[in-house]
Amino acid sequence: MIRFPWATGLLAMLLLAGLPGPSIAQDEPEPKDDEPKAEADEGKKDDEKEDASESKNGVKPYDEVITEDATTDPGLFLVHRADGKVYYEIPTDALDVPMLWVTQIAQTSKGRDIMGTLGDDLVVRWELREDDEKILLRQVRFAMRAEEGDPIAGAVEASNLSPIIMAFPVAAYGKDKAPVVDVTGLFTEDVAELSVKERLGAERVDPKRTFIEQAKSFPENVEVKVLTTYNPRPPRGGDDGPPAFFGPSGDDTITAVVHHSMVKLPDDPMEPRRYDDRVGYFTVGFDDYSSDEHQVDEIRYITRWRLEKEDPEAEVSDPVEPIVFYVGREVPEKWRPFVKQGIEAWQGAFEEAGFSNAILAKDAPDPREDPDWDAEDARYSSIRWLPTDVQNAMGPHVHDPRTGEILESDIQMYHNVIKLCRDWYFVQASPNDERAQDLPLPDDLMGELIAYVVSHEVGHTLGFPHNMKASSSYTVEELRSKEFTEEYGTEASIMDYGRFNYVAQPGDGARLIPIIGPYDEFAVEWGYRRFESEEAEEQGLAALVEKQLDDPKLRFGDPNPGEDPSQQTEDLGSDPVLATELGLKNLERVAGFLVEATGEEGENYDLLRNMYDQLVGQFRRETGHVANVVGGFYRNNAWYGDADTQFEAIAPEQQQKAVAFLIEHAFRTPEFLVRPDVLLRLEADGAADRILGMQRSLLGSLMDESRLKRMAEHASRADEGEPYRPIDLIRDLSDGIFAELDPEQAGAIDLYRRNLQRAYVDMLIEQVKADSNVSDLPALARGELRRLLDSIREGLAPDDVERDPTSQYHLQDLRDRIAQALDPRGVLEGVDVAGD
Predict the structure, then answer these.
(1) Cβ count within 10 A of residue 562
(2) Is it the case that residue 736 has pLDDT exceeding 90?
(3) Is 466 helix (H, G, I), strand (E, B) or coil?
(4) Alpha helices (H) in 504-575, listed in sequence order
(5) How far apart are CA 383 and CA 367, in angstroms?
(6) Which residues contact 544 (CB under 8 A, 6 or more apart)?
(7) Does residue 83 register a pLDDT over 60?
C-alpha cells in the first residue's frame, strides 16, 4: 500500500571528512539480558562516581541528581527517571557519534486517525563543550561532499556547519565522566527539528498537557513515547504556510502519541551500491563537488539490507545474518501462518541472488521466554497488528543515510486492512471464485489475501518502491491462462497495485491473487547479488539491466496516470480497452449476485450498501484506465545504447477505439449499476446523481487541458498516417453523447442521458468563458458549440421524429443556453435562438 518517504527525508545525509564518524571504536553496552538491574543500580553507587561538590557551572554530585528513588534503563545511553524528569547519561564513547533520529505519530486524537505518519527524520550527534559544561544536540546535514584533499573540501565543510538543536547544561557526571543531562524539555517543548505539529495542523505544544509516557534504552537505540497536546492552528486565509496532513476536526485541542527513535549508525559502514533508475529502489544521496562531470554530480545509493554469504565460494549460501521478521505477539492466531507465508514468499527471489534462507519469519518470544524482548528494540524487525479502523498497511524501514543500509523495519498491519482485502476481492475476483460469492469470506481465503498484503509490505522493507509498470506487462490472453498465471502470477511485480485478476473469465481457471513475480526476482538479484570486485559489479549489473530490452516483464515504472497507460494504478493488462471490457462483464456478474451474497434474513443492508459502493468504485477505476489511453504515450526508460527514443505516442486508432468504448460503456447508462432490486433496498433516490458524477469526472479527465495540449503536440509531430487530434476527440464525444440527434437513433432521451448532455454542454461553455490563451481548448469549445447548435436545431425540426415533451424541452433549453453562451448580447449572425 501505502509507500515510506525516505528518498525525500534522508536524501543527502552523508558524512563528510572532518565529521567524527562511525568508525570510532565504541564499547557498546551489553544486551539487556547480560545487564541485570542490580548492576545498573550498582553503577549508580560505586566509588568511581564523581562526587565533587557543585561546580561553578551548576554541576551537582551524581547522587543528588540520580537519586536512590530513580529508575534506570541501561543500553546505548543510561536512561534515568528521577523527580518527574528524564535524564540521559551519555557514555563518553557515544559522544560525537552519528545517530539517526526518526519521529513518528503513533496515535492521534479522534478525527486524525492515521497512525504511523512520519515527521522529519535527521542525523544527530551529542557533543560536549567542556569549557562551559554543556551538551549540544547537533543536526548533521551533509548534503554536500568532496574528496578529502580536494581544494574545495574545506569550502564544502564550511558550508555544512551542524545546527544546534538544543543545548543542555551538564547536571552531573557519572561513571568514567559520562555527562548526565536533563532531556525532559527536548520532548515536552516545541523543538522545531523534532516536531510533528505541521503534520497535525497544530500551532504549538502545550507543555502543561504533555507527558513523557515511556523512555527505554536498548543496546543500539533509545525509544521515547510522548503524550503530546497541541493548541490547534487558527484558520488562515491564503496559501502562506505548509499544508497540514490533517485538517481541523472540530477539536479544541489535538493530542497525539509521538514516538521518537534514536538509532546508532553502524561502526563499519556497508559498501553502498549506486542507483540505476531503470531498477526501482528507494535511495539516499548527496551532491559530489569532486565530480569530473563539469557539474555538481548527484550520487544516489540504493537502500538494502547487508547480506553477506557464509560461504563466499558457494553459488548459493545462507547469509551470515539473515533478515528476520518477528511476528508480533498481538497478531491474531489464525492469521499468523499467513503472515509468515507472506514474509518467506521472498526466499525464492533471494535464491536468484545467491542466498538461501535469506529472509525468515519467527514468532516473537513469549514474555516468559524472553522478558527483555521488545518490538521497539532496533535489533529486531517485526510485523505489528494495530487495532484501528484504518484500511491500510505500511512497510517502513530505518536505514543508514550514509550508505543506504537498512537497519530494521516494523511493518504495521492495520486491523481493518482485512476489510479492504475483502472488498477488493469480492468486486474483482468473485465471479471466478465461488468461495467469494457468499460473504463473509472463509478464513482460508482471507489468509491468502493477508499473505499478499504482507508480501507487498515486506517488499517495501527490502528497499522496493511501487513498480506501476508491472501490471501492464502481461497480455489479456496471458492473464486468462491458468498455466501462465501459475508460473508468472497476475502481474510482473507484487509491488504494483494490480490487486486481483479482474480480467479472467469464469472457466479460465487462472490465478487471481498476485505472487512474487519475475521483476521482483530481477530486482532482488540486481540489488543483493555479491560481486568479487568493483569492476565485476559494474559489468554484472549492466548485464542484468540489459535483459529489460527484450523482456518487458523486467521493466520498472513510477506511477504516471493520465500520461502513460502502462504505468497506472489498480489496472491489469497491456490492452486497457480489452481488459476493461472483460472487467465490466465481471462487474455485471457481481451485480447479479450482489443481494444474495451480502445478507441473510434478519440482517440489515449495511453490507449491501458497502459492496454496491465498491462496485461503483471499481467501475470508475476501470473506465478511467481506458480514458488514459487518449493522448497518452508509452515510456521505456532507456539509456544511450538501449534505444533511440524513450517516448512513443499511442497509435491514433487505439485512442479512437478507447473513446468509442467509453461512449458505449460509460456514457450510456450502465444498467447493472441501476438495478432496482439493489437500489430500492438502499435508497429512494440518488442513482441519477451518482451516475452523472461518474460521467462528469470521466468527461473532465478526457477534456483536461494538459491532455489536449499533449494531443496537439503529438499530432504536430506525426510524420505518417492521420493523427488523433483534440478536435477529433471533441467531435467524437459530441456525436456519441448526442447520438439521439441522429435520425436513425432519434426518440426519447432518458434521464441519465439528459443529465450527461447538460453536463457536457456546460463544460464546453465553461471553456468558452475561460480566460485562457495557452491552448486551443477555448476555440475548440466555441467551434463545437456552434456545431452542436446546428445539430440541435436540425434535431428539433423534422416532423417525422417523435419526441416526448421532456426530451423536446430539454433540447430547446440546450439550444437557448448554447446560443446565449456564444452571443450574450445577441449581435452575432447565425447564433440567434430559433422560434418555437
Answers:
(1) 18
(2) yes
(3) coil
(4) 518-528, 534-546
(5) 17
(6) 522, 525, 526
(7) yes
| Cell of residue 559, nine digits | 506511477
Give CA–CA dist 3/621, Å, rounded.
20
| Predicted TM-score (pTM) of this structure | 0.87
User: CA 480 to CA 504: how far, in whole Å?
Assistant: 5
Residues 6+ apart with CB under 8 A from 627: 658, 662, 698, 701, 702
Q: Of the candidates 29, 238, 20, 276, which has an alpha carbon nearest to the alpha carbon of residue 142?
A: 20
Domain membership of residue 243 (yes or no) is yes
Lowest mean pLDDT among 261-265, 584-588, 657-661, 793-797: 793-797
Cβ atoms of residues 94 and 77 within 8 Å: yes
Q: Can you give the three-state secondary structure of 205-252, one letter per residue?
A: ECHHHCEEEEEEECCCEEEEEEEEEEEECCCCCCCCCCCCCCCCCCCC
**Residues forming beta bridges with residue 289, ordered by sequence position:** none
Contact 724, 711 (CB under 8 A): yes
Given a cut of 60, whether residue 322 has pLDDT beyond it is yes
The C-alpha cell that represents 452 in the structure block: 499478499
Is 562 a member of any domain?
no
Span 545-580, pLDDT tens digits = 999 989 999 999 987 666 899 999 999 999 999 999
Cell of 766: 465553461
How many CB atoms neighbour CB 423 within 10 A? Answer: 19
Cell numbers found for residue 61: 554530585
User: Is the model's pLDDT at 355 over the cut of 50?
Assistant: yes
For the segment 382-422, what is each residue's pLDDT rounded down to a tens digit? 999 988 888 999 998 989 999 999 999 999 999 999 999 99
Which grid cell sits at 66? 540520580
- Residue that terminates a domain, selected from 265, 297, 316: 265
Residues 336 and 415: their CA atoms lie apart, in Å, by 13
Q: Which of 554, 118, 541, 559 is nearest to 304 (CA)?
A: 541
Instruction: Find all residues with CB under 8 Å of 240, minimum gap 6, and list them.
Output: none
d(CA 35, CA 72): 12
Instruction: State yes or no: pLDDT of 686 exceeds 80.
Output: yes
Cis peptide before 371 (omega within 30 of 0): no
Residues 692 and 759: beta-carbon distance below 8 Å: yes
Residue 627 lies in a domain: no
What's the Cα-to-Cα distance from 210 to each of 92, 230, 256, rounded to whole Å? 31, 8, 10
- Which residue, among 753, 813, 822, 810, has the nearest Cα to 781 in the 3D structure? 822
340: Cα separation from own chain's centroid: 23
- Angstrom distances, CA of residue 547 to CA of 56, 541, 544, 778: 70, 10, 6, 47
Counting every residue, how long is the chain?
A: 836
- Strand 221-232 and strand 211-217: pairing? antiparallel
Of 265, 294, 316, which residue constitutes the final position of a domain?
265
End-to-end CA distance of the chain: 58
Residue 272 has pLDDT above 80, yes or no: yes
Match 421524429 to its residue by C-alpha cell: 801
Q: Structural domain tally of the chain? A: 2
Distance CA 58, CA 408 (A): 40
Beta strands at 122-129 and 134-140: parallel, antiparallel or unpaired: antiparallel
Between CA 113 and CA 118, with CA 117 as vertex, the angle to 5 degrees is 155
**Which residue's entry shows cell 440482517?**
603
Query: 161 Cβ partners below 8 Å, 6+ apart?
Result: none
146: confidence class by pLDDT, cuts 50, 70, 90: confident
Distance between CA 386 and CA 115 in Å, rounded? Answer: 9
Q: Give residue 773's domain range.
A: 738-836
Contacts by 817-821 with C-beta closer than 8 Å and gap 24+? Answer: 817/761, 817/765, 818/761, 818/765, 818/785, 818/788, 818/789, 818/792, 819/789, 821/765, 821/768, 821/769, 821/785
Q: Is residue 362 part of a domain?
A: no
User: Whole-angstrom Cα distance, residue 380 to residue 323?
Assistant: 10
Count the neighbouring beta carbons within 10 Å of the beta carbon of residue 565.
26
